[in-house]
Amino acid sequence: MTEAHPAVPVDDDGPGRAATLALALERAARVARPDDGLRVLDRRERPSFRHWSEVHARARRAAGALAAAGVRPGDRVALILPTDLDFFDAFFGAVLLGAVPTPLYPPVRLGRLDEYFDRTVAMLEAAAPATLVVDKRVGRVIGRVFERWTPRCGLLPLESLADGPPWSGPGPDADDLAMVQFSSGTTVAPKPVSLTHRQVLANSRAIAAELLRAWPENGFEHCGVSWLPLYHDMGLIGCVFPALDWARPLTLLPPEVFLAKPGAWLRAISHYRGTISPAPDFAYALCVERVTDAELDGVDLSCWRAALDGAEPISPSGLTAFVERFSAYGLRPEALSPVYGLSEAALAVTFWPLDHRFRVVRFDRMALAEGRARVAAHDAPHPVALPSLGVPLPGFAVEIRDPDGAVQPEGVEGRIHVRGPSVMAGYLGRTEQPIQDGWLDTGDVGLLFEGELFITGRAKDVIVIRGQNHRPWEVERAVDAVEGVRTGCSAAVGDASEGTERLLVFVEARAPRSDLAEDCARAVQAATGLEASLVVVLEPGTLPRTSSGKIRRREALRQWHQGTLTPPDAVGPLLLAGALARSAWARLRHRD
């Protein structure tokens, strides 16, 4: 049984005095060493660097520009920007003004622009920002948004923020909103999560305390590396804010660079001696699949202390494969650390101990289908292997409850509820909230076993076959192993449209072949004992996804029933020219 660890005290010279992100930025500008600041690598892995003092100076000018445009303290400021140093002008400019930055994801799937505009307009209507900040690239295609939504202060080009008068106003208080971030929207439309300065800093400091607990010898001398999107909590709250709060260096790669060249992530960790770098589970699998030895010449990963793995179901075999593949390059087996968190809690809730190798438990499938945890016998058919996600961070608590809200004993599956200092103030502008007496209903399903948290899925994604619960990710991992299936591009759903729930599996194929569906069905049977009623083979890019890349299972089923589950438009010169023309026309009409 893993014991919870006490918080590590922060000394008087630490960041404990900074009650807001604005004060943390001012402090970082004063105390940072010459090499402390933000670094962004381009497609060729060439760095651009800004010291924390320059980040602060540029943010002051951006705050002045926002104020001159009519933005007031408390207003939301929507940001649709790529990963770039100038992103922080707009984000921290809004923070210094006392406004509320609201990062949204940029249009990255050009073949799905109509879907992108629908979701973006919905998020803008939910957040009701006073203005929208975009750079030149985003501005060329975003014009159609204004056909349906117009901000009070209009559209602000990112470049214009550099010319504002330096802001010297009072700034926000600790309990003012620091940001609005949208939930991933895996099972429902993305929701605006309201987070105060006190809450985001509490989560950032809980992460730092766990790092200090594991390695207290030199204080917080950690160096971050991340390719995660800046509109995502793991990238912003989990990487940027700890670096800011401790005035430490952080190296960023744009997500598109990582996806095109996963080896760039590992090279950046080696070159800049990164000690902490988190990622969702698919990233580790992608590195195993695509990074060659030739790309790792001279790479040394022995500096990597915390390879945090979260944001989606974690594959135990994937963890093992990553350690085995990169141990020759100095990767420590204990570096791989499964974690659990969610947007509504700002980010992190539980951590596996960072100085221990990860733990995997093989549960009996039949018992788990009935909602009970029992370790599988050695010869049990189709055991369910789950990684431990550790114990709550200092100040946090986890309970498992049944549908009526009753707390369940250890070893019984139910809905996960969490409490802690960074749990959101609530969804912005919503009357119904998933919080009662300080406890947040996460919508996730799991159990506590020997004091540790194990996740079994999302409540709305559970597949019920003949009265027993099954987890879609098990089916999806089974078809991932079938030759011709695109890894991470499948969706398993329960369909009750014909009266009895049946298992449907959607898979995207690298190249179509006549027996692919049959091979997938056999793989599901062998891995889980379940019979797939139908396997639907799709073209690449067909499955709907969230802004963070997660498959939207229920949306795939809905589109399939409606006959709209179709591949994206082919991206070519004509499509791009048409999108740019429609955007330009919409912006001209908006000006008029």
Q: Can you walk me through this structure?
A:
The chain has 592 residues and is an alpha/beta fold. Among the domains are: 14-220 and 227-248, ANL, N-terminal domain (Rossmann fold); 363-418 and 429-460, Luciferase, domain 3, CATH 2.30.38; 463-543, GMP Synthetase, Chain A, domain 3. 31% of the residues lie in helices and 22% in strands. The strands form 8 sheets. It has a 5-stranded mixed beta sheet, sandwiched between helices. Strands 18, 19, 21, 22 and 23 form a 5-stranded antiparallel beta sheet that branches.
Amino- and carboxy-terminal Cα gap: 66 Å
Shape: globular
Rounded to the nearest angstrom, the radius of gyration is 24 Å
Q: Proportion of β residues?
A: 15-25%
* CATH architecture level-2 label of the domain at 14-220 and 227-248: 3-Layer(aba) Sandwich
β-strand number: 28
Q: Number of helix segments?
A: 16
The CATH topology of the domain at 14-220 and 227-248 is given as Rossmann fold
Major sheet, described briefly?
5 strands, mixed
Major sheet: arrangement of strands: 11-12-13-14-17
The secondary-structure class comes to alpha/beta
Instruction: Write down the CATH class of the domain at 14-220 and 227-248.
Output: Alpha Beta
Unreliable segments (pLDDT under 50, ≥5 consecutive)? 1-14
